[in-house]
Amino acid sequence: MRRHQHHRCNISSGSETGSGSDSDNNTTMRCISCREEYLRRDAGTCKECYVEAGETEEELKREIEDLKAKVIFLRFPSCLDHGSSRSFTDVVLIASQDAAGPPPIPAHKAVLVSRSPVFKAMLENEMEESRSGTIKISDVSYNTLRTFVCYLYTAEASLDEQMACDLLIMSEKYQVKHLKSYCEKFLVTKLSWDNSLLTYAFAHQHNAKLVLDAALSQITNNMDKLTKREEYLELVEKDPRLIVEIYEAYLSKQVNTAAGGASTSKTG
Amino acid sequence: MRRHQHHRCNISSGSETGSGSDSDNNTTMRCISCREEYLRRDAGTCKECYVEAGETEEELKREIEDLKAKVIFLRFPSCLDHGSSRSFTDVVLIASQDAAGPPPIPAHKAVLVSRSPVFKAMLENEMEESRSGTIKISDVSYNTLRTFVCYLYTAEASLDEQMACDLLIMSEKYQVKHLKSYCEKFLVTKLSWDNSLLTYAFAHQHNAKLVLDAALSQITNNMDKLTKREEYLELVEKDPRLIVEIYEAYLSKQVNTAAGGASTSKTG
């Protein structure tokens, strides 16, 4: 919760007379929240609204506590704990990328099925995976797969940018929307001008709308520097459609800004 | 979110002069939240605090949305759905109270174990229940057992007072704290003078502290009517200790009130 920079009022307790607006505007009051003095023109709410807002905040906080308790109740024990809490597993997942033969990751069909429509189709339709109790997943590292499975049990993952990208790809493949959204939000927080073009291309490839929009906004705010970027030249070669979409977004933004500027002439 | 009864200000826009406090106090302002006018003495916050409070509220609401999405993700499909979503079950629960032989309720050992330390001990220690894959539960109706199992999957149950009491007993037996707390909160909302003595005795029997305190408070606020109650006479016969505890709570309240009244003489 941010606290604002306090506006210390340098008020010369005026010697005006009369109940006119000048005098009123120099009247100072003390805010019952931040305890600072403020001028009439900086007045916010009445006391009742302040009290109500406080009650609303308390209610919301109670709701958050209730929901957090629910999450803890519904969460399975961490999948890092390979002891008793992972008992009664009836399937293993194997990351087939690693040649060394990584250890299989035990899991419960019921959990996989309830979290992913792809696992559901795979396991409920008596396909090879269901019969053998083994799901081989190619093009993924053991570490990524383990983090992915963990997330299905706990709705939690410790991310860095690489892991967020890897998990986003997995979540798209297995249609785990909640995880995809989790990765997208993380990637948006890591967005910068430096990684914006690569992130944009990545988001495009994996239908990550939230990341795509954020990256596009980052790029179109810095169009002057765009064509000098190495990744720009590469992208023009490799996938010029993506570059076209950047120019289209930029153009559309310019048109909107012009229209907005014309209609809301009171800004600025 | 309640809205307060607006304090319409009948202000005769005064003809006072001077910037003294009388004049200031008659200055009216318009609350930027409820849009009503208020007097200086009813002023709440400055504008910045109002804006900040609004931002805080938005942040809390976003957190609530995130948590709700997490709950939905972690929740298993409703146990009312006996179709595909309940597949891969490896245990059944049977309510042995009903003579008619109620249908067994299929479940997953992994879910039972993760929600209840009692099921955990039962199923992981190769006891009869684990070997046979059948858990017989006496003294419970099929309907209660089904609602109980449902809750373990979804953290949700539709309650009435009877069901809340039945589930509270089950949650105590199987140490499902989250459910016990859920039932307790429900029973507190249903508390009235009419059911307070029975609820008090029930809460006592099942270590339901939240309900116990609420019931005790209800009772000690109406001590003049207590001894005329039929349940009172029954309880004196059956479990006089409970009645003693009521009197002790009442006495302690009186002492505290007297002490509070003496030290905070500015109340009233």
Automatic annotation (TrEMBL), chains A, B:
**SUPFAM superfamilies hit by this protein:** POZ domain
Task: Outline the extent of the BTB domain.
Answer: 89-161
Q: Where is the composition biased (Low complexity)?
A: 12-24
Q: Where is this region: Disordered?
A: 1-26
Superkingdom: Eukaryota
Q: In which pathway does it act?
A: Protein modification; protein ubiquitination
PANTHER family noted in UniProt: SPECKLE-TYPE POZ PROTEIN (PTHR24413)
List the protein's name.
BTB/POZ domain-containing protein
Native species = Cardamine amara subsp. amara
